[in-house]
Amino acid sequence: LQECKIQNSSREYCKIFAAEARAVPDFGAVPEIIPLYLIYRPANNIPYATMEEDLGGPCEQYCVTERDGSLVTRGTSEIVLKCCAFQHWVYQWTNGNILVTDMEGVGWKMTNVRIATNLKGYQGLKESCFPSLLEQFAAAHQCNRYCSLLGLKMLEPAKPKGSKSPSMGRKSAQSSPQLQK
Q: Polar residues bias: where (predicted)?
């Protein structure tokens, strides 16, 4: 259930990111986080399972959290750079409270996403979820051309503030990272 909530919430952020990226000339293709469904199988020994579309090939890791807790990007391909821009966008949009930490997939379709947050109770998490990754990301992120195309600000480690939820909608155009130049 937790995996579904995290992946599907990240998917909602990604949809908003994609809409903003499509409005930017020369941005090109945008990553898509595929939905993860929870299914109930009452006659099975394990009554709950997750299901998602078949991506048609072996998954590549684009952005991962290593065992030592560090964030690592795998390469400098267009997909990897856009995943990093998406991470920056989510971090900025949520005022440093949420970060999509892991993304892997086939081509532009992403799965197995994870998050780091310092928001207690986010998506049912009872405690913080890797809040040190938020600080590490702000200190280590190297903006790339896609961050620039979106008009994202250079990151500086800061104290987290309130967060906006994509399901609540925007109150004004100023809530978009793209417009906060």
A: 172-181
